[in-house]
């Protein structure tokens, strides 16, 4: 009888071990799948999408006619995470679709050490993003900073005249943050 009870207990231990292994594998798979799920959600919502440089941006500008019959108010917003001071030189401007525009952002590193920062843009309304073409932007790559350094970055853009007629205001918002582990890269 004791042997039968021991077998039963041994079988229960094996079942529990198999269940725990299945749970561990499922948790690992879920954690691994979170990265592409997060990227897909960010692309759909337009949040935290790193801005790739448009390859044919110069051609787009050459072939775009300025629509002087229409003006779009562009609001420039800046948010910082960490020890940076970050702001646009102007908070808003009126822009004609098809017009080449430059706005400057100023970033100051308040850290006592060298570091690197990254800007992530977002647009409101989100449908404006596909009509907002940047030729030059500090958001295309990480930016190195020395301790206490201040830099001015131009953003050169054009708004496609195909922007829906119901859009009268576009907010271009950047969040600027320190890139973790980038200090070694800056020192090289």
Automatic annotation (TrEMBL):
- CC terms in the record's Gene Ontology section: plasma membrane
An example of a Pfam family matching this protein is CtaG_Cox11
The protein's topology relative to the membrane is: Single-pass type II membrane protein
Q: Could you list the residue ranges that cross the membrane?
A: 20-38
| Domain of life assignment | Bacteria
Where is it predominantly found?
membrane
Its keywords, alphabetically, are: Copper, Membrane, Signal-anchor, Transmembrane, Transmembrane helix
Q: Which GO terms describe its molecular function?
A: copper ion binding
Localized where? Cell inner membrane
Q: Which family does it belong to?
A: Belongs to the COX11/CtaG family.
Q: Which NCBIfam families would you find in this protein's record?
A: PRK05089.1
Quote the function comment for this protein.
Answer: Exerts its effect at some terminal stage of cytochrome c oxidase synthesis, probably by being involved in the insertion of the copper B into subunit I.
**What name does UniProt use for this protein?**
Cytochrome c oxidase assembly protein CtaG
Q: Which organism is it from?
A: Limnobacter thiooxidans
